[in-house]
Amino acid sequence: MKLIALVMIVPLVFVLLLIVKRVKHSKLMAKGNLEPENYKTGIEHYNAGRMLEAEYAFRETIRISPGFADAHFKLGNLLTERSQFEEAKNAYLQALRLKPDYHQAYNNLGNLLRFNGQHQEANAAFRSAIDIKPDFPEALNNLGILLIESGDLEEAENVFRQSVRIGTGSFDVLYNLAMLLEDRGKLDEAETTYHQVLGINPDFSPAANALGLLLAINGRPQEAESYFRDVVRLNPDVPFAYKNLGLALKESGGLSEAEACYRQALAIQPKDSDTLNCLAELLTETNCLEEAESTYRLALKVMPDNIEALNNLGILLRKTKRMDEAESAHLQALAIKPDSAATLNDLGALYMSTARFQEAETAFRQALKLDPTQPEASDNFAVLNLLFGNFELGWEGKEYRWKTELKNKLRGFSQPRWDGKAFPGKTLLVHCEQGAGDSIQFFRYLPRLKDMGGSLVVECPPFLFRLFRENLATDVRLVRYQEALPDFDFHCPLMSLPLHFNTRLETIPADVPYMKPSAEAVANCPTLQTLPGAPFKVGVVWAGNPQHPNDNARSLDFSLLEPLFAIEGITWVILQMEQRPEGFECLVKQNGWLDPMDSVMDFADTAAVIIQLDRVIGVDTSVIHLAGALGKPVWLLLPFLSDWRWLLQREDSPWYPRMRLFRQTALDTWPEVIQRVATALSAERDVFLQNKSHI
Fold first, then answer.
1. Whole-angstrom distance, CA of residue 74 vs CA of residue 105
2. Neighbouring residues of 302: CB distance < 8 A, sequence distance ≥ 6
3. Rounded-to-integer distance, Cα 564 and Cα 573, Å
4. Where are the TPR repeats (predicted)?
């Protein structure tokens, strides 16, 4: 569940200013009239909540003094509170007949008419109140609400602003204005106005919640967190307060506290389907898949038509490779809401993962027809185009990544995005925004920027700093994440460079090597001595980052590599930093494998290891990209549906000319892939040994 869905929990409910507050009854009386005794008694009963007694007193006042307008007005208020709308309307009209300039009566009559759906008549009543008293903030506020309900948002905004200008800093009017500004997309001004509301009334939890939502939706979950904590403090028994805080914590990486918040919300309201869905989504993210599935199913038991839970269950089932069940869940969600762009997108992603590409394209196109701005569908459709080598559409569509997986990494630079044109005399900042593998892959574009006439600044993560420094021109300024940036005129995310260079399959800059290890890293790297009778040095890596969304497909179990290790004549070099099996050190010693990774601190050190190898074999990880960039022969093991950059059905890669691809021919068939690799590796070993014997 994305945080934007939480707006449904706190609907756009504007604060109506009915002039019926018991504590302010003196403001409601017509001036210059003496109050009959029965009327005073009625006010006392009304303020004490004794409505029957109050009604009797007001009616007695009207019987004795039928021309006393305030009694009719107060009776109208009382009848409105008791939902006796027709009688209340008549009471207000009688008050107005007796006192035509009774602006408070026009205001309350307008509210009554609005509640009954008589918008045209309500509009006239509010405007009559404002004509009588132009500086009447309550009537202006209520007219603004009516205009919103009638769809005239611009006029509503004008009316609210007028109410604020002539009011006395009323936080409820400001709150209405803030929500309208947010609804109209004026987010900066909405944020400022919410702050004004909380400046007047720090304990007004609807404003704190709304501001938290605005910040969270716009990629600022850590700032949102403090406001949601205020909502929890002010509403400790309200479940949605904990849920919103949990969502903000999840977005900012505080998964364990987020889980605790969801569970607290469920302790208060155990059968809340939306909160169960949120908890299940978090459990999926933390790989507690069995509990996640049971929690999704509980959410659906509570609310069978919860399409978000159905779709999320489908995603989990796809992750656990139960494709038929996943498709059934998505189709069930689509049957409930056929015009759901989100469901069509999820269904398209399932089809793409099972190589049903035509069905995937149809689903994505349908989703975008329903909602052309749907970022997930746009991003997935871009991936599909890149997978087929349709780079023109693919690069453009991948810019939607800033509204999907990278929405919380959007940099708030005041400088504009680079447009791809030459920038003589100017400075361009290029910043890494993806993982290490992507950064290494697209590093190849950086030297081309030197030909565009300006200065270049590159920002990268610390673990790539030494590698990048060695391979960039000396006049390129390189900075680490979190370091102060020098002045620059434009900025560009690294992965946007292929778009700006109009990259097509035939124009990929594929000269290798385009990286080399530093002399310092080579000098400090231990020499990899081959074993006796095993001169062929092969590096191996079998798993990537477990947090990668496709890691369960791209990584493989270490035990599956046994047929490779059984091949004689090879010195195996371990390139795997983490995700090692239990007892791995013993296996290394028993089999004579070389394990230099204890000496590796960053990718410069890894490069110094790889440069000593004859070949690298592994799954789709940053190590594979580094080996390809160093120009080493690489054999890449790919799942049935691989990442877009490896295209379809090819055994080579246009990105890395010395790379060979070994693909699964069906879903989850790693043993067959390993067997093909073993056969090919035995042949390569023989060629290597034969060539070595001729030296």
1. 9
2. 271, 272, 273, 276
3. 12
4. 69-102, 103-136, 137-170, 171-204, 205-238, 239-272, 307-340, 341-374
Best CA proximity match to 129, nearest among 153, 163, 156: 163
Q: What is the pTM of this model?
A: 0.77
The helix/strand/coil state of 459 is strand
Residue 1 has pLDDT above 90, yes or no: no
CATH topology of domain 427-507: Rossmann fold (3.40.50)
Helix, strand or coil, per DSSP, at residue 195? helix
Identify the CATH assignment for 172-263 out of 1.25.40.10, 1.10.10.10, 3.30.450.20, 3.40.50.2000: 1.25.40.10
Residue 317's nearest CA partner among 284, 358, 276, 342 is: 284
> How many residues can be counted in the chain?
695
CATH ID of 302-409, from 2.120.10.30, 1.10.10.10, 3.40.50.720, 1.25.40.10: 1.25.40.10
Residues with Cβ within 8 Å of 567's Cβ and at least 6 positions away in sequence, in order, are 678, 681, 682, 685
Crossing angle (nearest 10°) for helices 239-251 and 221-234: 160
Q: Could you give phi then psi for residue 492, rounded to 5 degrees? A: -150, 125
* Identical topology for domains 302-409 and 524-693: no
**DSSP state, 444?**
G
Which residue carries 């004579």 as its tokens? 592
What distances in angstroms separate CA 674 from CA 33, 434, 557, 561, 580, one per listed residue? 97, 29, 11, 7, 19
What is the per-residue pLDDT across 504-541, written as a single tens digit (0 to 9) for each? 999 999 999 999 999 999 999 999 999 999 999 999 99
Percent of the chain with pLDDT over 90: 81
- Residue 402 predicted with pLDDT over 90: no
Please give the single-letter amino acid code of residue 296: Y
396, pLDDT greater than 80: yes
The residue among 546 and 269 whose pLDDT is bigger is 269
- Provide the token pair at 603: 């990718």
Using the Cα atoms of residue 342, residue 346, residue 347 and residue 351 in order, give the sign of their dihedral: positive
| Nearby residues of 66 by Cβ (< 8 Å), 6 or more positions away | none
Return d(Cα 500, Cα 505) in angstroms, integer: 15
CB 550 within 8 A of CB 643: yes
**Which three-class secondary structure string do you get for 519-580?**
HHHHHHCCCCCCECCECEEEEEECCCCCCCCCHHHHCCCHHHHHHHHCCCCEEEEECCCCCC
pLDDT recorded at residue 695: 59
- Which pLDDT band, with edges at 50, 70 and 90, does 172 fall under? confident
Position 675 confidence tier, pLDDT thresholds 50, 70, 90: very high
Distance CA 285, CA 653 (A): 31
Q: What mean pLDDT is predicted for residues 138-156?
A: 90
For the chain, what percent of residues have pLDDT higher than 70? 94
Report the C-alpha gap between 639 and 619 in whole angstroms: 9
Element (H, E) at 154: helix 153-166
Res 693 pLDDT > 80: no
What 3-state DSSP class applies to 417?
A: strand
